[in-house]
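Bench notes, afternoon.
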Amino acid sequence: QGAVLLVQEAKPECRGRWYLPAGRMEPGEGVVEGLRREVKEESGLEREPLTLLALEERGPAWIRFAFLARPAGGTLKTLEEADAESLQATWWSGDPRALPLRSPDILPVLELATRYRQSPPHPPTLPRPLPCAPLCLRLLLPFTNAAGDLWVLLGTAGTPHLPVVACGTSPPELRGGLCQPVLRLLRDCLPWDPQPGTLGLLGLQHRAGGAGGADGICFNVVLSPPPRSQG
């Protein structure tokens, strides 16, 4: 019906302001499980995720997932049920900029959700329950040669595989973006100086509580080399 679920914040630094349901994942918690828990705590509603809308990152130390989800039960939280998680929740069908927002960073996410509902640019994409020890990127780098043949960059150590690079393995990387280790890997693999463009995220892998307590995430990313680099 064109309305979006918003919650009124209870935190002292933004009390009374409005925001999308959001929060931090807990140790050993899956991405989707964290989504369901946070929405329930802050709005009183059960939610079922439909697709990943966006991935925001400020390096390996700060990653945020934005999902489009649908109602799946529960009761909307009222002011009488206010607690430390939120004051109340509401279905808002007007312009969210008319409200005192905690931050305008939710506006691009709302635009993405509107566009997806009108004309989905990609099929539903949810995390695959596969374990991963570190935070890493798996790279799909296709390109063509002069004859029009399609090539894909593969690692040849052992069984041929798509290149994988671990992120956040040093203090500088924890403060930098995820592209830094990608460029380092490609410069070791390719005879030219690569400056790849990101075509999109194919999907992500995460399963909390893997072997040995593994709780990493793998992002499967499609990259494109610039035209001058295609060999």
